[in-house]
């Protein structure tokens, strides 16, 4: 599990919630940090903020999907951008789920759990 968000408070909030549910969690501070670490971490699921410095969530998700070594990883976009156009853009890239901030931690846990199970079944 890799949690990617440039806001340390949100990153830690997500990480703690998922750790308490039994997930092994690593964190990254932005999209470039995610891409630099993803092959070492080998996550089943990545939660990805959209608006980040250096490399935003859109481009990070696009690069993850475009690389055969990472294209299988489940991606959850977590963002304050709640417009339908943003959701369509995320789904067009091929993300697996789209949650808007503020998010319900129990919903996040359920989405991640479902995607992690799907990653192991697939």
Short description:
This protein has 122 residues and is α/β, with parallel strands linked by helices. Helix content is 50%, strand content 17%.
Plain-language structure description:
The protein has helices at 8-20, 31-41, 57-66, 84-93, 105-121, and strands at residues 2-4, 26-28, 45-49, 74-79, 97-100. It has 122 residues and is of the alpha/beta class. A five-stranded parallel beta sheet has the order 2-1-3-4-5, with helices on both faces. The protein starts with a strand and ends with a helix.
Structural class based on helices, strands and sheet pairing: alpha/beta
Instruction: Give the % helix.
Output: 40-55%
Count of discrete alpha- or pi-helical segments spanning 4 or more residues: 5
Largest sheet: 5 strands, parallel
The radius of gyration is 13 Å
Task: Report the end-to-end length measured between terminal Cα atoms.
Answer: 17 Å
Poorly predicted residue ranges: none
Mean pLDDT: 94
What string, H for helix and E for strand, traces the elements in order?
EHEHEHEHEH
Strand percentage? 15-25%
Overall geometric form = globular
Strand order of the largest sheet: 2-1-3-4-5
Number of E-state strands: 5
């Amino acid at each position: 599990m890799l949690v990617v968000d440039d806001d340390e408070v949100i990153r830690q909030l997500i990480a703690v919630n998922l750790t308490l549910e039994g997930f092994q969690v690593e964190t990254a501070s932005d999209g470039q940090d995610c891409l630099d670490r993803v092959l070492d971490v080998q996550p089943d699921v990545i939660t990805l903020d959209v608006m980040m410095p250096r490399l935003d969530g859109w481009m990070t998700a696009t690069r993850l999907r475009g690389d055969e070594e990472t294209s299988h990883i489940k991606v959850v976009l977590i963002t304050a951008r709640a417009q339908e156009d943003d959701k369509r853009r995320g789904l067009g890239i091929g993300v697996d789920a789209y949650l808007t901030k503020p998010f319900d931690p129990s919903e996040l846990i359920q989405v991640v759990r479902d995607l992690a199970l799907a990653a192991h079944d697939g």
